Amino acid sequence: LKKKAERVIIGLGIEGVEEAAKSECLIIVVDVLRASSTIITAIANGALSIIPTLKIQEAGSIAKSIPKSLLGGERKGVRIPGFDLGNSPLEYTSNVVYNRNIVFTTTNCTRVLEKCKQLPLLNEVRIGAFLNVGALVKEAKRYLDEEEGHISIVQAGSHGKASLDDLLCAEIIKTMIQSEGEHRPTADMRRILSSISYLVLSNTKHGKYLSEIGFDNDVRYCSQIDTTDVVPRFEKEGGTISRIVSCSAKTTKQQN
Ligand code: MLT
To answer: How close is the Cα of 181 to the center of ligand 1, in Å?
Structure first.
């Protein structure tokens, strides 16, 4: 049997999902700037579900068939014409998203999620970012204790290329999963990590671009470490993301 430390790997994009799918695993999809952070925020603020879709047109027709739905997402970082929301997590306040289903399309993250739909039933998918790192690590540690599979942290990246924001987040998650101690960073550690992550995020190509087009507050927001216990679960069969009721991978599997 492999040691726990050997059961955590980091992958990239669609190939990362394909690689992970070769064996039983829990996949954590990370797109710090900004789709994962937006999904986590929407679910934390009471959205019923997020429905990731590849194409803009497809999103429009799905939204028409779902009651209480909103259209959200971006192209080139900005809100798509005719959509209710862009991809700024700061737009997804409880006033706006509570009790709503959000049909969501973004440049990179929704492509990775689309690939996850083809995964075998045994594989579970979660959404991760800096915002939910503590709860995510708790969930991952429980998975390693209870299940035989591995953890695959898949960075959404940018057009198939790795991006330092996702890589940093993936490495932090991996290190925390592998450490024996608490799953949660201490308050001091949170402050230190948050300022490091802001420095890194604001210096990435996409971080700089977002700041240029007026979203520096998003970059700042997405740099925050461990602000929520919400770990969104992607239900591959139905193609929707929602809050997990039980943190146990075993329980969720039995519910399927
Ligand atoms: C994406 O999925 O490509 C990103 O979340 C883009 C963005 O920052 O809006």
So the answer is: 33
**166 neighbors 157 (Cβ within 8 angstroms):** yes
User: pTM of the prediction?
Assistant: 0.93
Best residue among 83, 85, 107, 210 to mutate for probing ligand 1's pocket (most ligand atoms within 8 Å of CB) is 107
Q: How far is the CA of 132 from the centre of ligand 1 (A)?
A: 18
pLDDT in tens, 21-57: 888 999 999 999 999 999 999 999 999 999 999 999 9
Question: CB–CB of 204/163 below 8 Å?
Answer: yes
In the structure, what pLDDT confidence band is assigned to residue 245 with cuts at 50, 70 and 90? low
